[in-house]
Amino acid sequence: MNSQKVDNQLNLALDSTVQEREKTIDLNVGFDEASGLWELILKYSGDLSILEETYLASVTYLLNGYAIIRIQEEYIDELVQYPQIEFIEKPRGIYWGQGQELVDTCIYQVKRPPYTLTGKGILIAVIDSGIDYAHPEFLNPEGTTRIEVIWDQTIEGNPPVGYQRGTLYTKEQIDEALQQGNDRLSVVPSVDLSGHGTHVAGICAGNSGVAPESQIVIVKLGTPSKRSFPRTTELMEAVNFVTQFALERRMPIAINLSFGNNYGGHDGSSLLETYLNDIASIGRMVISCGSGNEGSTGRHYGGQLLEGENATIQLSISEYESSMNLQIWKSYADQFRVYVSSPSNVRVGPINQVLGTQRFRLGTTNLLLYFGEPAPYNRDQEIYIEWIPEGDYIDEGIWTIELEAERIVTGQYDMWLPVAEATGTRSRFLFTNEERTLTIPSTAEKVITVGAYNSELDALAPFSGRGYTRRNQIKPDISAPGVNILSASPGGGYSVRSGTSMATPFVTGASALLMEYGIINGNDPYLYGEKVKAYLLRGARELPVLESYPNQILGYGVLCLRDSIP
């Protein structure tokens, strides 16, 4: 399949065998082998009911002309032909962004008079790995829950109205479960196995966190893939759900997203990012997203190719690497030839631009290569390479990618490997660029993109994802403490974690306090969305370790909420 109405990764997946896809990190994400169904993201206009009737497809309708469809693979070619369908995108795997703070972020100061801000009247939505709802951090003094609702996408049974996965648990059901003591899971069996979501929720909305009187909305993302990471389709449904929940309650909401992936142009053009931009303009809300932990992983390389020049990029594939892929993003106006060499110096190329999947074998490793075309939502070109082993593992050692300039207009190119959490190995570029290591969806324009820093030392956190985007938009927007953060842990205890996942909820909670100050307390009924971002950026504190602001590491500076209040 080679439709320009379909994103490159889906085109390549449909051109690959099931056996090839199963050996990759991402090509099989969204496909259920047992049923033969693909779960896909649609951008559409008009009526899709004919698809449900003709193909027995199931459609979950999201806001602003987006939808999630589940359809048999054999019907995708026909799906593309419908004029109502504007673009189709395959889901990606998303990965948790792991790795005296209230004083350092100037939040403690606004909890006292004359402000006395606590988050009262504001919803905080944590879309993550779930929550330990019995943890004291999320209980009222009398022992009832502060959680309004939990949508656990991993427990099939009673999904929210309009959705097709998971089970919804109400505040009343959670309180009933709490009364059962150790038998509570018989009433509400939702748990947080990794502890990530509990830790994040404790920072932004726990009783000792940033907004202790906020009302909490939890979505535990589904984990059906072989590596137990959720998909972007589940994330989009989660964002849609919490947005609708806030609109029904007529309450302001701050949404926390502490995860990301590397697949895409890192320029805000994927359907996930455009969807978040659209949603951010609905109702009274703020979306905060971590910049990811790719700053020091060596998973990005970029450069400038001049007319008549060649570029040689070396990629180290570690031992026991079962799957790997590479994206090369460039201007469509530039024309490159591509060569690939294996560790045993077997070389293929020049690989010219041909629409469709090209296959090569180097040693005991197969390469799938796809030259993409510009899409309705992205004017750049992607060259996608997938390594698939004949046996269990890719040939380890130094692989070489050569770019040969034919016609150059801009010459700029960027390369990304999957995020380190996706493979769990040390594969990387030998020579790397720390710039443009933001993960997606933190490159969406209207989210608040949060980097991490070490607040104990007022020092940089080397793991924190750095900007700018490929369109040179300033990202991250702001940074917050993300090193050795103590917060709630499943089982009623506390643990220390580091990462932009831990920095993001400081900004989410601070956004809730700003909306309380403006909307709930009557100081500014329009203090939400981009206005909250503007206030946070104006109050940001500049660290002396860097001279120029805004910059690619900390954005406009580090969070200082006291100075963000007019």
Automatic annotation (TrEMBL):
Lipoprotein among keywords: no
Domain Peptidase S8/S53: 119-331, 432-557
GO terms (BP aspect): proteolysis
InterPro entries for this protein: CspB_prodomain (IPR041365), Pep_S8_CspA-like (IPR034045), Pept_S8A_subtilisin_clostridia (IPR017310), Peptidase_S8/S53_dom (IPR000209), Peptidase_S8/S53_dom_sf (IPR036852), Peptidase_S8_Asp-AS (IPR023827), Peptidase_S8_Ser-AS (IPR023828), Peptidase_S8_subtilisin-like (IPR050131)
Name of the protein this chain belongs to: S8 family serine peptidase
Family: Belongs to the peptidase S8 family.
Record domain Csp protease B prodomain: where: 4-92
Alphabetical keyword list: Hydrolase, Protease, Serine protease
Active-site residue numbers: D128, H196, S501
Gene Ontology molecular-function annotations: serine-type endopeptidase activity
